[in-house]
């Protein structure tokens, strides 16, 4: 009798375990898709690198304040928008002067050689930058794929990196190298293509015979950790069949349990449905209740723009402060680089990445695996949230909000993050005597330390404020001074 009961108990445990671990079936509805929890690794990662790379990297030119990866659109539509006042013919004039009237955008394909592309070197740079995940443009709005794909050629001619230009599987090579150094690998994919004949003449056929099989091929071949959709805005999600695609992704694909998706799956879907929410050249978004991510370039272009000068690039300090600003409100920063057509990452971009990595090596525990505190930052007196009126918000906004305010405007004196072990107070500049953390309602800390040196700091709690005495500052002891972190031990 005892053996029978033991057998029954074992069967019950096994049956219960199967029920607990069974894969939930997702339906092609937003209610069902939105119920899927974004995998925890994404919210813990905080810093990723975006890569815009393709035939547009050959001309690598557009007026300052505009996106160079939109070169084909600027050229063929004779229009332009961004930061600045434009006539609309600037790219046309540049193109005809440089390449001639008979030179088409598709002629750039063979010039996109990627002959100096070294995926292992890229991956090492990314690792040293402190980034935790990478997102590569597998296909932008021009339709050129960075992997061998038959749908890329259904416009009537070959238009992929294995057959045109590089003669290499760029997605495959970089995915292998990035994963080998322990980083997550994501793939950007544009749903629409500006000048694909089916998109222009038969959108239903484009969706059924081009978009859906192509994106499934991408996911099946490379098993990305992130699928970053874009180019969705001209058509509703129902016409894109996005919900059916995502149900397949979460039910049947090889990455159904691990993949992360964003929110760009149809007209009006952004910041409402999908996975994590996305902002672009904005600042912070403390009102979001879902994981979110700010993406932006180091200058004003995602693709490499040789028209941008050193002063058009954000400084290392501003990029670090942007990262802190986003993370303090619960987001990730996806910072873009634009390699050239041969596969070189411009030295100024490499320098910025390495500078960020140097700061994160010392202060990363205040960034990775953290969550927002009750307040994301502490303002001084004055008018808050200085933001210039720009189509794309420039990086100097964070300097104006911290160390170089406009007259009458407040600054963010302190930023805050936390984890289970501690609260982190991040200073955008050095203060001479002490800092006051206002509204510190928690119990007295066990200790307070300066993260850069490990030294313990004197502190005093009065009512709901915590004052921390500044340590003696020796520049030789602080490897990176873009921002300073005090750790308040719980």
Describe the structure using short key phrases.
five-stranded antiparallel beta sheet, alpha-L-fucosidase, Glyco_hydro_b, signal, eight-stranded parallel beta sheet, globular, 16 strands, Glyco_hydro_29_N, Immunoglobulin-like, alpha-L-fucosidase activity
Structure write-up:
Pfam families: Alpha_L_fucos (PF01120), Fucosidase_C (PF16757). It comes from Zhouia amylolytica AD3. One of its GO terms (cellular component) is lysosome. InterPro entries: FUC_metazoa-typ, Fucosidase_C, GH, Glyco_hydro_29, Glyco_hydro_29_N, Glyco_hydro_b. It is a single chain. 29% of the residues lie in helices and 17% in strands. By secondary structure, the protein is an alpha/beta fold. The protein has two domains: 30-366, Glycosidases (TIM Barrel); 377-489, Immunoglobulin-like (Sandwich), CATH 2.60.40. It is globular, with a radius of gyration of 25 Å.
Instruction: Tally the beta strands.
Output: 16
SSE-based structural type: alpha/beta
CATH superfamily of the largest domain: Glycosidases
The CATH topology of the largest domain is given as TIM Barrel
Shape: globular
- Helix count, DSSP H or I runs of 4 or more residues: 14
Architecture (CATH level 2) name of the largest domain? Alpha-Beta Barrel
Spatial ordering of strands, largest sheet: 5-4-3-2-1-8-7-6
Distance between the termini: 54 Å
User: How large is the share of residues in beta strands?
Assistant: 15-25%
Overall mean pLDDT stands at: 94
Report Rg.
25 Å
Number of domains: 2
Helix content: 25-40%
Query: Could you list the spans in which at least 5 consecutive residues all have pLDDT below 50?
Result: 13-22
- Run of helices and strands: HHHEHHHEHEHHEHHEEEHEHEHEEEEEEE
CATH class of the largest domain reads Alpha Beta
In this structure, how is the largest beta sheet organized?
8 strands, parallel
């Amino acid at each position: 009798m005892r053996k029978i009961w033991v057998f029954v108990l074992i069967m019950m445990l096994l049956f219960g375990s199967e029920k607990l671990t069974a894969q939930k079936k997702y339906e092609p509805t937003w209610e069902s898709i939105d119920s899927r929890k974004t995998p925890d690794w994404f919210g813990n990662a905080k810093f990723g690198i975006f890569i815009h790379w393709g035939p547009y990297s050959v001309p690598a030119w557009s007026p300052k304040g505009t996106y160079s990866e939109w070169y084909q659109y600027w050229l063929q539509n004779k229009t332009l928008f961004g930061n600045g006042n434009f006539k609309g013919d600037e790219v046309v004039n540049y193109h005809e002067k440089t390449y001639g009237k008979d030179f088409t955008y598709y002629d750039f394909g063979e010039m996109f050689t990627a002959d100096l592309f070294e995926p292992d070197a890229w991956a090492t740079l990314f690792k040293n930058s402190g980034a935790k995940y990478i997102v590569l443009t597998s296909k932008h709005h021009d339709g050129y794929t960075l992997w061998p794909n038959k749908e890329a050629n259904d416009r009537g001619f070959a238009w992929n990196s294995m057959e045109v230009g590089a003669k290499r599987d760029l997605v495959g090579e970089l995915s292998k190298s990035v994963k080998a150094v322990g980083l997550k690998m994501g793939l950007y994919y544009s749903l629409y293509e500006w000048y694909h004949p089916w998109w222009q003449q038969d959108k239903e056929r484009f969706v059924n015979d081009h978009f859906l099989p192509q994106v499934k091929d991408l996911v099946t071949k490379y098993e990305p950790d992130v699928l970053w959709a874009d180019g969705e805005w001209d058509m509703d999600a129902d016409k894109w069949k996005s919900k059916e695609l995502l149900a397949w992704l979460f039910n049947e694909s090889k990455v159904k349990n691990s993949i992360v998706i964003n929110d760009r799956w149809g007209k009006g879907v952004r910041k409402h449905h999908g996975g994590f929410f996305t902002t672009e050249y904005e600042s912070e978004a403390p009102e979001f209740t879902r994981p979110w991510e700010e993406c932006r370039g180091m200058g004003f272009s995602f693709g490499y723009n040789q028209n941008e000068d050193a002063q058009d690039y954000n400084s290392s300090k501003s990029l670090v402060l942007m990262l802190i600003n986003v993370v303090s409100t619960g987001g990730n920063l996806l910072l873009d680089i634009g390699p050239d057509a041969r596969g070189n990452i411009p030295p100024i971009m490499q320098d910025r990445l390495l500078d960020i990595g140097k700061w994160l090596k010392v202060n990363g525990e205040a960034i990775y695996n953290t969550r927002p505190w009750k307040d994301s930052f502490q303002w001084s007196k004055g008018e808050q949230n200085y933001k210039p009126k720009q189509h794309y918000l420039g990086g100097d906004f964070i300097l104006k909000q911290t160390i170089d305010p406009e007259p009458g405007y407040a600054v963010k004196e302190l930023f805050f993050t936390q984890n289970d072990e501690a609260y982190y107070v991040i200073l955008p500049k050095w203060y001479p005597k002490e800092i006051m953390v206002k509204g510190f309602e928690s119990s007295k800390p066990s200790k307070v330390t300066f993260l850069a040196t490990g030294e313990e700091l004197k502190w005093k709690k009065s009512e709901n404020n915590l004052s921390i005495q500044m340590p003696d500052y020796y520049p030789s002891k602080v490897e990176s001074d873009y921002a300073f972190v005090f750790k308040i031990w719980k």
